[in-house]
Amino acid sequence: MTDSMLFFIKAVFLGLIEGITEFLPISSTAHLLLVGDWIGFDSGNAKVFEVVIQFGSILAVMWVFRSRLWQLVHGTFTGVRSEVLFTRNLIIAFLPAAVIGALTIKYIKMLFHHPIVFVVTLIAGGLIMLWVERKPHFAKNASNETAASEHVSARTLEEISWRQALAVGFAQCLAMVPGTSRSGATIISGMLAGIHRKTATEFSFFLAMPTMLAATAYDLYKNGVGISPDVSVAIIVGFIAAFLSALLVVRALLTFISRYTYRPFAWYRIALGLVVLLWLWRSGAM
């Protein structure tokens, strides 16, 4: 097997990893960088590969929600109040990350070179998720239905307030730190703000669309000129793999959260963080 063929196989593998992890609250960035390092995949210092294939996952969620997305666009331009308010909330939630990200992107990228950051964010994120899911109003049993009803003020996307959207937007800024998880930060913050678990997940999906489109466009603008032909092909195959795998995960996640909590993902984050910590210690990187 030639080096080029092996390089493309690794790109497909990482594309599958991206599609599987992007919408799960376990940090796709952590998985891409850790697995990429493990298999010896080098796409260059700019990390354009990792960012662009993430947009493949976003296109997958756009396809899954294509009917609702068309309803949103059409309703906004025709003045349907509920759709106009939904669009307003997406803009409100998008702006904090856009502004803060533009101001801090240089410093944030420096964190990608420190694996211990992944350990801290993975474990801390898992502990926060466990803490949130232990609250009575998030419990999945009948005895807590009253508490849940009192806490949850938005059971549909149209019922989300601008304050709740802003809270989710600021939480999305935390996801700039490697290992935090964009979906995890936005979903959990939405639940804490009073948005129903399934609705918070769907809002996170919709918010990912402008966020990742902006991130992809920015990285291509800043680093696209220097991409080699091999990396360009790797991006394409990784993009396709991410799109196809994300199609399956999005539908499966929505089914899962309608029946269960996010606790399994919290324990997975903690376990992964401990594994990375052990690896750093064994390799003398600490």
TrEMBL record:
**One Pfam match, by short name?**
BacA
- GO terms under cellular component: plasma membrane
Catalytic activity reported: di-trans,octa-cis-undecaprenyl diphosphate + H2O = di-trans,octa-cis-undecaprenyl phosphate + phosphate + H(+)
Q: How does it sit in the membrane?
A: Multi-pass membrane protein
Where is the protein found, in the record's own terms? Cell membrane
What UniProt keywords apply to this chain's record, in alphabetical order?
A: Antibiotic resistance, Cell membrane, Cell shape, Cell wall biogenesis/degradation, Hydrolase, Membrane, Peptidoglycan synthesis, Transmembrane, Transmembrane helix
Q: Name one GO biological process term.
A: cell wall organization
| Residues passing through the membrane, by range | 7-26, 46-65, 86-105, 111-132, 203-221, 233-254, 266-282
Q: Which InterPro entries match?
A: UppP
Q: What does this protein do?
A: Catalyzes the dephosphorylation of undecaprenyl diphosphate (UPP). Confers resistance to bacitracin.
HAMAP family recorded: Undec_diphosphatase
Supply the NCBIfam families for this chain.
Answer: PRK00281.1-2 (NF001389), PRK00281.1-4 (NF001390), undec_PP_bacA (TIGR00753)
As for family, the record states: Belongs to the UppP family.
* Miscellaneous field: Bacitracin is thought to be involved in the inhibition of peptidoglycan synthesis by sequestering undecaprenyl diphosphate, thereby reducing the pool of lipid carrier available.
Q: By what name is this protein known?
A: Undecaprenyl-diphosphatase
> Which species does this protein come from?
Eoetvoesiella caeni
